[in-house]
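Re: that chain you flagged

S.,

Sorry for the slow reply, it's been a week of failed gels. I finally had a moment to sit down with the sequence you sent. For the record, here it is as I used it:
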Amino acid sequence: MEYIKLEYSGAVATLTINRPKALNALNSAVLSELSAAIDEVSASSARCLIVRGEGTKAFVAGADIAEMSNMTSEQALEFGRLGTAVFKKLERMAIPTIAAVCGYALGGGCELAMACDIRLVSDTAAFAQPETGLGIIPGFGGTQRLPLLVGVSRAKEILFTGRRVKAEEALSIGLCSGVYTVDELFPAAQAMAEKIASFPPNAMRATKLAANQAFAANVDAGISAENRIFAACFDGEEQKQCMDAFLNKKK
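Prediction finished late last night. Pasting the structure tokens below so you have them in one place:
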């Protein structure tokens, strides 16, 4: 695989999004490889999975705006469905998953982290759903998972404003479970994963399956609606103007 690295240490698998020049941004190729990697881990003897981004600047800086900027609504619907299918597959893995978030987790990166069971972050981490500024909405489940994690009112404020939530605030509102220095983060994630992997696997799988029932049906219905609304954003000029302005500012 070109954009995904998989490593195994005992019963712990580590999946790394490896596109550092693009701050690990998610395009269709990355999502397809991510799906295949999840299948590989699921078929292995791993008992816990760590998800991380290459480098320390970004976990995942978002979906690839250069790819999205000229999409039709039909293409956007397929892109949104691809991302949500991959993240749902990650969320429903039988084994527990830990997102080790170092640096930016923006847009699709925030959504990827939220699809994991546990989020551990560096003190440099920053979460955001900045899609409204691009003329769209979150397309990979963000409108559904964020309210479940931080509450409806706070989630709407974060979604409406697109502001960045830094590490300590993320901890205080329940968006993550622990804050570490950059040097401490990945060893801490590995230690937690090893502890989880040491417990009886059938009990761990059953616990995750039962816990996921608390929200599974509502999330499925909400994500289906999110896919349609996300795609509709690509019908007018607003999305194209906003994304063009973003891309031109980066040049």
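What I noticed first: The chain is about 50% helix and 15% strand.

Talk soon,
D.
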